[in-house]
Amino acid sequence: MPYKEKEIEKKYYSIGEVASMFKVAPSLIRYWEGEFDIIKPKKDKKGNRRFTKEDIEKIRYIYQLVKIKGYTLQGAQEVIRGDHQKVFDKAAMVDRLHQIKRFLVEIRDTMHVESK
């Protein structure tokens, strides 16, 4: 099996990187930061927001509630207030399943190419 270099994992992401992950405008991420008190990115000396993976998971769940499931902001806030640890565990599980799917598709595509 060929040597595969380990990917470098970033600790912090800019607001532009986070916005592009969800295909939304950075202004929406800033707006959600004001609306949802669970989003608390660190800020550097210049005031630029630096998001951690945990922040991104929280944003991912808000995105799922608002953009995919159609909740209002108030409805999403109520869901998060209800049992937020359960909410984030579920969001993490969904994200992990998407990662597994991408991995399996990559294996399938590799096997398909090799069989030709």
Automatic annotation (TrEMBL):
Entry annotated with the keyword DNA-binding: yes
One Pfam family linked to the record: MerR_1
Domain HTH merR-type: 12-82
UniProt keyword annotation of DNA-binding present: yes
InterPro entries hit by this protein: DNA-bd_dom_put_sf, MerR-type_HTH_dom, MerR_fam
SUPFAM superfamilies reported for this sequence: Putative DNA-binding domain
This protein's UniProt keywords: DNA-binding
Molecular function per GO: DNA binding; DNA-binding transcription factor activity
SMART domains the UniProt entry points to: HTH_MERR
Record-given protein name: MerR family transcriptional regulator
Natural source organism: Aquiflexum gelatinilyticum
